[in-house]
Design a protein that fits this description.
The chain has about 220 residues and is α/β, with parallel strands linked by helices. A five-stranded parallel β-sheet has the order 3-2-4-1-5, with helices on both faces. A four-stranded antiparallel β-sheet has the order 6-9-7-8, with helices on one face. The two termini are about 20 Å apart. Pathway: Cofactor biosynthesis; adenosylcobalamin biosynthesis.
Length: about 220
């Protein structure tokens, strides 16, 4: 199994207990660079640094990802491989691309993610501000997704969003609580509890929308 753990924005004390436990018990730990290696150094020293270049050369990035999957796969096929990523693995990270290659080259390997404190939430504490109301988050590319908090009437809201071109919906109720519930598309109910988040996306590519397909 391959587990990606978020290791927070930079302070080793901002890792979750679950992340630290996984890092300590993994058969092997991989990091995408020396910054991540330094962050987890209080918990694990014998880590493998992989190359994830910060470049616009997509062919080079794809080659590096393919090479990294071949390094990780032998461990993930037989035991627990942990891949540490700054922030959160599912917010603007490379883990989705890694998974899209693994699904094709090593379909027997299962993978999951453990959330970390992302720069998006850490920002408010660093800046000393409280954020409320509607917020737009972007890396500069076209906005095609929405996250809506405290959704009490998710079916009504998803119907309105469909009219705006959104075609994928995920409702997450009471995340990581004992009675967590994840509902998708046609499962979206009329009402939901206070601790609910509705995710909506304009999906423009075919296949599994959770991980954009990677060239290989």
């Amino acid at each position: 199994m391959l587990v990606a753990v978020g290791i927070g924005p930079g302070d080793p004390e901002l890792l979750t207990v679950k992340a630290v436990n996984l890092i300590k018990k993994a058969d092997a730990v991989y990091v995408p660079g020396n910054v991540a290696k330094e962050i987890i150094s209080p918990y694990r020293k014998d880590v493998t640094v992989l190359s994830f270049p910060m470049t616009d050369d997509e062919d080079y990035i794809s080659r590096c990802i393919r090479k990294n999957t071949e390094i990780i796969a032998p461990v993930a096929e037989k035991g627990l491989a942990v891949f540490c990523i700054l922030g959160d693995p599912n917010f603007y990270g490379t883990f989705g691309r890694l998974c899209s290659v693994l699904k094709k080259t090593h379909p027997d390997i299962s993978f999951e993610t453990v959330p970390g404190i992302s720069s998006i939430t850490a920002f408010a504490s660093a800046a000393g501000i409280a954020i409320n109301g509607g917020v737009e988050i972007s890396d500069g590319s076209e906005i095609n997704s929405k996250l809506m908090l405290k959704v009490r009437k998710p079916k009504d809201i998803s119907a309105k969003l469909k009219a705006e071109g959104y075609n994928e919906f995920i409702l997450a109720e009471k995340i990581f609580m004992k009675d967590q519930n994840i509902l998708r598309d046609d499962e979206i109910p009329e009402k939901s509890p206070y601790f609910s988040i509705l995710f909506a996306r304009k999906n423009n590519y075919a296949g599994d929308s959770r991980h954009k397909e990677e060239k290989y």
